[in-house]
Amino acid sequence: MRWFKLTRPYAALATLVISISLGYAVRYDQHGIEIVGDIPRGIPIPFSLFPAQALWRAHFVSLIPTALLASLAGYLESIALAKKIYKDHGGRKPISPNREFISLGIANSAQMLLGGFPMMGSLCNTSAALMCGGRSQGTAIVRSVVIAIVLLLLTPVFFYLPEAVLAANVVVAVAKMVDFKSPVALFKMMQFIDFVV
């Protein structure tokens, strides 16, 4: 049983390696299985993904409501995730919504220069990091270095990765974060509106 607990974090990696190896041998795409396919290699050059100024000005005002809603949703998700992790795993300091707000603002301002996706708390990344034993900000640094190496050198390797295997790894990582006890308790207390939400 102890051996199983030690090897469990590596099960996702083993699944990826085996499915990619089989993909090169069997050629999944020739059998109707959806694969990841080509992934662009390299890291984007800062400011290279900015649209032309005329296009940017034309769409700026129309994007403001969507950007505000996305920012609010990302902030709420980040706070909810941080509070859940703090409750389940503890921490040195309680969660400060103001500090989270400022750090998300700084991170997203820096990310804008690279033309990347908006940054927020990620249920999938957090649960995967916890499953592998990560307990500090150093986990994010290691993950970032690994992603940079993959983007620079290893993207062709993932060509035959089945999308179903990729999705299964995400589901397995996130499944541990789902709280089934609270909805059951709410249902038993006749708090039907809270249960539905």
Automatic annotation (TrEMBL):
Record's bilayer topology term: Multi-pass membrane protein
GO biological process, one term: transmembrane transport
Main location: membrane
Domain of life, per lineage: Eukaryota
Keywords, in A-Z order: Membrane, Transmembrane, Transmembrane helix
Annotated transmembrane regions: 58-80, 101-120, 140-161
Stretches assigned to the SLC26A/SulP transporter domain: 11-197
Localization in the cell: Membrane
Pfam families named in the record: Sulfate_transp
GO cellular component: membrane
Name of the protein in its database record: SLC26A/SulP transporter domain-containing protein
Protein source organism: Perkinsus olseni (Perkinsus atlanticus)
